[in-house]
Amino acid sequence: MYGALLILVVVAISGLIAYLGDQIGMKVGKKRISIFGLRPKYTSIIITILTGVLIASLTITVILATNNGVRQAIFNIQQVLSRLETTRNDLDILNQQMLKKDLILKEKDNLLDDKDDQLQKKEVEIQNIEVELANLQKQKEQLDEENLLLAEQKSELQSKLDSIQLEYETAQSNIEDLKETKTQLEGQLDKLQTEQQDLEERIELLNQEVNRANKELSDTTLRYYLQDLVYQKGDVIYIDVVEKGKTQDETVDNIIEFVTKANNEVLNRPVKVDDETGSAISLKTEEVFGLATTILQSDIEKYIISLVTEVNVSQNMIVPVSFQLSPDFIVYPKGDIITEKVIDASKSVAELEDELIDILTTINTESVKKGIISVEQGTVGTIKFSRFYEVLNKVQSFKGKVNVRVSATGDIWVEDGWNDQFSNKIRFDIEQVGSSNDE
């Protein structure tokens, strides 16, 4: 700002001096004034020159008066140049020193960086060592726990070893007994092998009979379609209860007795009879032994066995049969209520008959569901004609509504459905609703 103002002032003064010099030159020229005896023309030139000199002098004077640096530069230029050179040299020296310092600082920075890297590496190594130390501590704790467990297991194993040692000594003392038992078992094995051989011989004989029966069956196929049927496929020709024997032979004997009774039943029909065996039925021997094995292996003492025809049987034909097995058990224990129903005793005889028939139907349905077997399906809940009307008359002796309760007078088994014992083991109790009156 100061320099600009100085320039403006110098320009303004120079312009003013130039203007004054021009005016003076013009006046001198007009008046034809002569200085130092010179012609007016030259006098005017001299005045113009003096004006320029005055302008230059005044400009230099103002600049020198106002700027010390310019004075120094004009009057001490050599000294300034010398100082400038010295300063340049000093600057070069300083620059070299700065470069050296920069190099040293860079080296220091590199060293610091290396030290920082090493420090970081050391810190990472320390962290790894700490983690490893913690893991080792955990492993030590686990090893301590395992040592305790091993100590406990060692104690338990020692106890087991003592126990096993005692058992070994006991077993050693029983070796003679075991040898004796082995001898007995070998004797039993020889006996069983002998029995097995006998059974195989019997099976062979029975297989021969089966083959002969099959041949006869093949020969009578044509007659089967031309003559009247004695049995249809699936008919029950005989049913009875068979108890489990103490041995397989006893059980087989019981089954054979059952088959003999069934054969006697079949002999009453117009079927063919084997002249050698006197049997009218054809039964595979292995079925007898298979049935005996099934009965012996079960926990049930009584079974209901049905002998069922395998094919439609015509006249003068051997009857092929097979077994059907079902367990015999108590369906209704003694005193158990089979069913009960409230009916109106004031109804007509026909309506009361329907009510009683409905009760008998319910007895039949529930008994069959519980497992009672009937040779003729749907006849479990029947009673004699006289007893039916005896119950009906008893109901009619009441007035209003009565409760008809049917209960078991004894244990009712599955077999009682087909041996005519079911109806003999039930009782009809009739009570006035609100009072008691038994049959």
Could you describe the 3D structure shown?
By secondary structure, the chain is an alpha+beta fold. 64% of the residues lie in helices and 14% in strands. It has helices spanning 2-31, 40-66, 68-75, 77-173, 175-219, 221-226, 248-266, 285-297, 349-370, 385-396; strands spanning 229-231, 236-243, 281-282, 302-309, 313-314, 319-327, 330-332, 337-344, 401-408, 412-413, 426-432. Helix 1 packs antiparallel against helix 2, helix 2 (40-66) crosses helix 3 (68-75) and helix 9 crosses helix 10. 15% of the residues are buried. The model has no long low-confidence stretch (mean pLDDT 79).
* Low-confidence segments: none
Shape: elongated
Average predicted confidence as pLDDT: 79
Q: Spatial order of the strands in the main sheet?
A: 2-4-6-3
Task: Please give the share of residues in helix.
Answer: 55-70%
**Over the alpha carbons, how many angstroms does the gyration radius reach?**
71 Å
Compute the separation of the termini in Å. 147 Å
> Biggest β-sheet: count, sense, barrel?
4 strands, mixed
Report the sheet-strand fraction.
5-15%
E-strand count: 11
- Note the total helix count: 10
What is the string of helix and strand elements? HHHHHHEEHEHEEEEEHHEEE
Structural class: alpha+beta
Overview features:
439 residues, four-stranded mixed sheet, 10 helices
Summarize the structure.
With 439 residues, this protein is α+β, with helices and mostly antiparallel strands.
